[in-house]
TrEMBL record:
Keyword Ribonucleoprotein in annotation: no
The entry's keywords: Signal
Family matches, as InterPro entries: Metallo-B-lactamas (IPR001279), NDM-1-like (IPR050855), RibonucZ/Hydroxyglut_hydro (IPR036866)
Name of protein: Metallo-beta-lactamase domain-containing protein
Organism: Polaromonas eurypsychrophila
């Protein structure tokens, strides 16, 4: 009996010691306090409430996102001769100016062909509005909104402000043998992000995911290195970014301004923007659907309709489809023809597929589309995700004919283009109408022929002649309807 108290005491002492070890272990493994992590990083980087605006500039290399020559391959390389970005955290605003040239000949994008000059662009954001400057005129660009919001809040200081605002959770993660403190958060409906803060309390990397009208939820990785001090604010000397698994930017930063003046306000014209579809009857049962930067063409068949092109994003495609239902009530949309896989020409395809349309694309692009259409937009569900439909995709090799016994629609592959592989054009033999995108965009009326014919224009003429198409009119998916003579003048043949 005399040993019982000793045994009890020993057991109790052991239990107490074990409990203390467990508690100590719990304390050691407790997740970091996110607010403290943010505060330490802002102190180290010179951010916080005192940093309202920041401008950085540089040059480097990059790629045109969404303009791959062949579906599923890397984005076409570009040279970035100048780049600047003004970020205004207080007003949720951004301005980006860039001058770029092609670094490889094949692929899309609104750049001059290889060796024929540079493209200059200015893109803006303020709050819930995105726009571009075209000369002195602001032009609404709602399709760019998600990307620019992402760009604003995935700058090194912006991600800390966004993490604080969105009540980030903190943790730790080891990458390539190095341990980082992480801050994870969601900007509702826009993107999800995890920032990696290194041992010096500098933001070194941001992994993020954002909705995309073509690819569904799309991953991005941004890596910051070579931090330098600019008037008490530390900013990286190099910024590298991938999007959808391929490089899109490698910027060498040469200039940083802290708290520069900013007057970024969305113009009233941009705030009031709404998608508008201008309908022009091209022939009986054929309508040219314009009114924006990208056009579509509606073709009425005996018991259904065919839509050539659903571009840009849900908003544009929704407006086009509303017009389709108005023009041809009671007939289902059976097919949507995609001229090619470049994102500006494909951003509304999910919307058309959500309505039950079968996607007709090139056989070359079909495997990529099968995979891409299966990747949902979950961060902000789009029409296809909400419909719960599985996409039906059919590939065209060489030529495909659609016929209802009255009207014939021919779909031809454009061969030998530097713009895209798996490039389709649509020909209506009875009406002698050709529908095409990017192979030829008409110049304004009465424009003189260019000194050097555009290689894409020449290639289109070659394909028309090789396929022995009798074309009288062209319905381009950019620009105005024209007669064949306009194209022939553009290539120096009258």
């Amino acid at each position: 009996m005399s040993t019982s108290p000793r045994l009890s005491f020993t057991w109790a002492t052991g239990l107490a010691a074990s409990s203390l070890l467990v508690l100590a272990g719990c304390a050691a493994w407790a997740p970091p306090d996110p607010v403290a992590v943010i505060q330490r990083a802002e102190t180290a980087m010179g951010g916080g409430a005192a940093l309202n605006t920041l401008r950085y500039a540089g040059s480097g290399t990059g790629a045109t996102f969404g303009q791959a020559y062949q579906p599923g391959t890397s984005w076409p390389k570009i040279t970035v001769s100048s780049f600047s970005r003004l970020v205004d955290y207080r007003n949720a605003a951004l301005r980006q100016d860039a001058a770029v040239t092609r670094a490889e000949p094949a692929g899309g994008g609104a750049l001059p062909l290889m060796g024929l000059g540079e493209q200059r662009s200015t893109g803006m954001l303020q709050g819930a509005w995105a726009w571009n400057m075209v000369g002195p005129a602001p032009v609404a660009s709602p399709v760019a909104l998600d990307g620019r919001i992402h760009d604003l809040w995935t700058t090194p200081h912006g991600v800390l402000k966004a993490a604080l605002k969105n009540k980030a959770t903190a943790g730790t993660r080891t990458v390539d043998g190095r341990t980082y403190t992480t801050l994870s958060f969601t900007e509702p409906g826009r993107f999800e992000a995890t920032a990696y803060v290194n041992a010096e309390n500098l933001v070194e990397r941001i992994d993020s995911r954002q909705p995309h009208p073509v690819m569904g939820d799309t991953d991005s990785v941004i890596v910051f290195s070579a931090y330098r001090d600019y008037a008490g604010v530390k900013f990286p000397g190099r910024i590298r970014q991938t999007m959808g698994g391929s490089d899109i930017l490698d910027l060498q930063v040469s200039e940083v301004q802290v708290n520069p003046a900013s007057d970024l306000v969305a113009p009233e014209l941009v705030r009031q923007f709404a998608e508008r579809v201008a309908v022009e009857k091209a022939a009986e049962g054929i309508w040219f659907l314009a009114g924006g930067s990208h056009n579509s063409v509606l073709i009425e068949m005996k018991d259904h309709t065919v839509l050539v092109e659903a571009p840009l994003y849900d908003g544009r495609a929704g407006a086009v489809l509303a017009e389709v239902r108005k023009l041809v009530p009671g007939k289902p949309l059976r097919y949507v023809v995609n001229s090619h896989h470049h994102f500006d020409h494909a951003g509304g395809l999910r919307t058309a597929v959500a309505e039950g349309a079968t996607l007709l694309t090139s056989a070359n692009a079909k495997p990529w589309w099968d995979k891409t259409m299966a990747n949902a937009n979950r961060i902000r569900p789009d029409a296809l995700t909400r419909s719960a439909r599985s996409a039906s995709v059919e590939g065209v090799t060489g030529k495909r004919t659609l016929s209802d016994g009255v009207r014939t629609v021919e779909i031809h592959e454009i061969q030998g283009s530097v713009h895209a592989q798996g490039f389709l054009m649509v020909y209506l033999p009875a009406e002698k109408i050709l529908i095409e995108a990017d192979a030829y965009t008409p110049s304004p009326p009465n424009s003189p022929a260019p000194a050097q014919p555009n290689a894409n224009h020449v290639n289109l003429v070659q394909n028309i002649e090789q396929n022995r198409l009798t074309v009288e009119r062209i319905l381009p998916l950019h620009g105005r309807m024209v007669v064949l003579a306009d194209l022939m003048t553009a290539v120096g043949r009258k």
